[in-house]
Specification:
Layout: E1 2-5, E2 8-11, H1 30-36, E3 45-56, E4 62-69, E5 73-79, H2 81-84, E6 88-95, H3 102-111, E7 116-123, E8 136-137, E9 147-153, E10 158-160, H4 162-166, E11 204-206, E12 210-222, E13 227-231, E14 241-246, H5 248-251, H6 255-259
Antiparallel strand pairs: 1-2, 3-4, 3-14, 4-13, 5-6, 5-8, 6-7, 9-12, 9-14, 10-11, 12-13
GO molecular function: structural constituent of ribosome
Family: Belongs to the universal ribosomal protein uL3 family.
Main location: mitochondrion
């Protein structure tokens, strides 16, 4: 049926067949991001950095190693695609005996665990990586010889100059240089470019940033004592909180990679 209004003609909506179109998935949506993201098949551990030691092998080799304590690391909550849009596991470590508010107490009581001092979240690839709430994870969660990634906040150095922060050479010690031996030198020029370019390395606050070290070998794992020893150094000060995961570059895969058999 067509209605005439002078020269214009409007088609009746009843003459157009009804079709239900699928909602398009935009490229930067959470659904496609979950397919592209390289994730592990299981969560990691929360630990406390205790210091560094010298590790000796049976062959007589010596190298630096770091001792990590695993203290009451338990599963607090599971996040699912239906409720949160992605899969993850929330872990807590170190029993908190005082200064726990009522809101936190309800959350831990629902999980059936003691209140925790430190909480961390670990994304997993799919629901097969979820661990039941209340499960305690120990140091032998990782096997000796495997590679792990360790995340922590690096030591804060405060406001540092360009020589310490970026390794600049500095200016001459003599030949007319006065009171500017550790300065950065020229920044932007007078006419060309006539400005300081974005991202220029300058003095500023150094350290105190999230940092990750990759592919550290596990040398020792004692579940009963709660001791994990890894080869090399890790970020952060002693008694700082760390996150230990399976090596992402070795074990991490995205759902798209699995679908394409990569």
């Amino acid at each position: 049926m067509v209605f005439s209004r002078g020269a214009a003609q409007i088609t009746s909506i009843h003459a157009v067949p009804s079709m239900r179109t699928e909602v398009p998935v935009i490229n930067h949506s959470l659904e496609l991001s979950n397919l592209r993201k390289s994730l592990l098949n299981r969560p990691g551990l929360l630990g406390i950095k205790r210091g560094m030691i010298s590790w000796f092998t049976e062959a007589g080799e010596q190298f630096a190693a770091t001792v990590i304590e695993i203290d009451s690391c338990e599963v607090i909550k599971q996040k699912t695609v239906e409720s949160d849009g992605y899969w993850s596991v929330l872990l807590g470590q170190i029993d908190k005996l005082k200064n726990v508010n009522e809101k936190e107490l309800v959350k831990f009581e629902a999980a059936g665990v003691s209140p925790k001092q430190n909480i961390g979240e670990f994304r997993v690839r799919d629901k097969s990586g979820l661990i039941p709430v209340g499960t305690e994870l120990k140091a032998d969660y990782f096997s000796v010889g495997q590679l792990v990634d360790i995340k922590a906040v690096s030591k804060g150095k405060g406001f540092a100059g360009v020589m310490k922060r970026h390794g600049f050479k500095g200016l001459n010690a003599s030949h007319g240089v006065s009171l500017s031996h550790r300065s950065a030198g020229g920044m932007g020029g007078n006419q060309d470019p006539g400005r300081v370019l974005p991202g220029k390395k300058m003095a500023g606050r150094m350290g105190g940033r999230n940092c990750t070290v990759f592919n550290n070998e596990v040398l020792h794992a004692d579940g009963e004592a709660g001791i994990l020893v890894v080869k090399g150094q890790i970020p952060g000060p002693a008694r700082g909180f760390v996150k230990i995961l399976d090596a992402t570059k070795l074990y991490g895969k995205s759902l798209n990679d699995i679908k394409n058999n990569l």
